[in-house]
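Example 9 (inverse folding). The structure is encoded as follows.
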């Protein structure tokens, strides 16, 4: 096993813990950036161009009939083939976290449409499911099993937010283990079925799952409820007859107490397990070889690489399987007393030079590694990262259209957890809903000053009725800091109607009106 340093580039900050790798035709594509995609790459999918130990990222594109795919971190991924021998395959993407920390329950099918030296085109389709649809989650696994000429996907484990009915003010955004149910997903008919197995008592997340034919092996993982890393090794066997599927579980000896490990395939039946954590305060630097043969699994310890001092002494690490026995490992730049966004990457090659050649991968691999940025959560298990296998190659493509993060403005400020003003007191770790329309993120409103910026409605002391009025009315709003500069355009305050004083009636003009008796008396006096 050899370890090689990858040169750092200007946009390496996009490769934060929680990303995934997709492998199409021997080319590695990055998915799940930190923050929302920018104008230079609205899809959020990049080609990783590794050339002479330098890593560059080039934007990929979606076809016109594709759906929107958010930059999900810690999702479950696996390949979907028509049959075991098929060369063509698609990727299944399920669950994960958005940049706003919302959890996704959607499932996407991603296919390669075309690729040349200048442009890569994908098709992304959201799949509608019915039946026992799995709840929104992250840190789980998805695998594909083949039995009796049919194929199904299997979803297991992960974490989710506390159910709404069980939330309290103090633990509104806390996460819990998902129930240890096994979900079978039939993509041909779009239906899901859940199974409760007595052997699976506790929820698991950030475990490793390796599938071969009709069998899935689940290794390690972390349980939040018990705060333990299970040493159990589970064997799930799925039978797909003409009638209802049958799922059985067997607990095998010889497991490893590890979480957030990475698995890479080095042979037709051989895999290597690296990385992860063996406790809350200790990384696991040992490595193991996993051998799958027909109906059994064998796990043996193997020689570890010569880890660098930076890797040995860092508190956290993250990485992904790159395929063909290679793993991409990263450590935070803060360990080298530089800016925290500047991560440092290594390529770990688990195969010898004579074995590093093209070969077909017949097994499905799905593994997770943890280490989200420390600002979002606690170290190790609660920091969570998720990854999948891909291949590392030197790509013979031009350097044109290379993504450069410095070419455009940072649009990550549009998130819900920004510091919107000097007096902003919204904190992702302590925030609780203030308005009745809020659930797991604070309400925001756009200030129309200049190019516009978002502010928290609670920080602006807006009442709920006023917030609803501004969201429905076609008026401009200016925050407390810019309201004095835009008095002519600010939202008018509600002013009571002036009371009008009733007008006094006009007096009638005095007129001299002679009545008939008056005329007669006048003539009488005239002739007397």
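The amino acid assigned to each position is listed next.
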């Amino acid at each position: 096993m050899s370890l090689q340093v990858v040169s750092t580039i200007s946009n390496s900050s996009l490769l934060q813990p929680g990303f995934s790798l997709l492998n199409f035709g021997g080319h590695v594509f990055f998915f799940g950036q930190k923050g929302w995609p920018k104008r230079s790459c609205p899809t959020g999918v990049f080609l990783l161009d590794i050339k002479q130990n330098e890593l560059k990222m080039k934007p990929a594109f979606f076809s016109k009939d594709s759906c929107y795919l958010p930059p999900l971190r810690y999702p479950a991924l696996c390949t979907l083939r028509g049959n075991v021998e098929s060369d063509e395959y698609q990727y299944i993407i399920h669950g994960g976290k958005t940049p706003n920390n919302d959890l996704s329950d959607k499932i996407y099918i991603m296919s390669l449409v075309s690729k040349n030296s200048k442009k890569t085109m994908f098709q992304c389709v959201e799949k509608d499911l019915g039946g026992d649809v799995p709840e929104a989650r992250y840190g789980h696994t998805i695998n594909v099993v083949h039995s009796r000429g049919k194929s199904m996907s299997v979803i297991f484990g992960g974490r989710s937010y506390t159910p709404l009915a069980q939330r309290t003010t103090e633990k509104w955004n806390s996460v819990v283990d998902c129930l240890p149910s096994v979900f079978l997903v039939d993509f041909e008919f779009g239906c899901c079925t859940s199974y409760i197995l007595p052997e699976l008592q506790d929820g698991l997340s950030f475990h490793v799952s390796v599938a071969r034919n009709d069998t899935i092996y689940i290794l390690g993982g972390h349980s939040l409820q018990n705060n333990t890393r299970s040493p159990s090794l589970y064997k799930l066997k799925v039978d797909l007859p003409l009638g209802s599927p049958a799922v059985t579980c067997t607990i095998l000896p010889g497991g490893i107490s590890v979480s957030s490990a990475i698995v890479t395939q080095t042979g037709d039946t051989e895999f290597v397990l690296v990385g992860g954590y063996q406790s809350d305060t200790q990384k696991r630097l040992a490595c193991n070889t996993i051998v799958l043969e027909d109906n059994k699994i064998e796990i043996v310890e193997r020689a570890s690489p010569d880890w660098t001092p930076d890797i040995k002494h860092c508190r956290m690490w993250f990485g992904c399987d790159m395929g063909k026995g290679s793993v991409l490992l990263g450590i935070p730049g803060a360990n080298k007393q530089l800016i925290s966004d500047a991560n440092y990457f290594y390529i770990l090659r688990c195969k010898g030079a004579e074995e590093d050649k093209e070969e077909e991968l017949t097994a499905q691999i799905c593994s997770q590694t943890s280490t989200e940025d420390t600002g979002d959560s606690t170290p190790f298990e609660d920091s969570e990262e998720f990854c999948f296998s891909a291949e590392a190659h030197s790509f013979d493509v031009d350097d044109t259209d290379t993504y450069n993060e410095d070419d455009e403005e940072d649009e990550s400020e549009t998130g819900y957890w920004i510091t919107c003003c000097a007096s902003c007191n919204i904190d992702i770790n302590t925030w609780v809903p203030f308005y009745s329309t809020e659930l797991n993120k604070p309400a925001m409103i756009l200030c129309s000053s200049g190019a516009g910026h978002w502010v928290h409605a609670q920080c602006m002391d807006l009442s709920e009725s006023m917030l609803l009025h501004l969201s429905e009315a076609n008026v401009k709003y200016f925050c407390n800091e810019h309201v004095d500069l835009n008095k002519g355009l600010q939202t008018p305050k509600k002013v009571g109607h002036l009371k009008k004083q009733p007008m006094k009636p006009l007096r009638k003009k005095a007129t001299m009106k002679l009545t008939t008796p008056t005329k007669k008396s006048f003539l009488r006096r005239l002739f007397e």
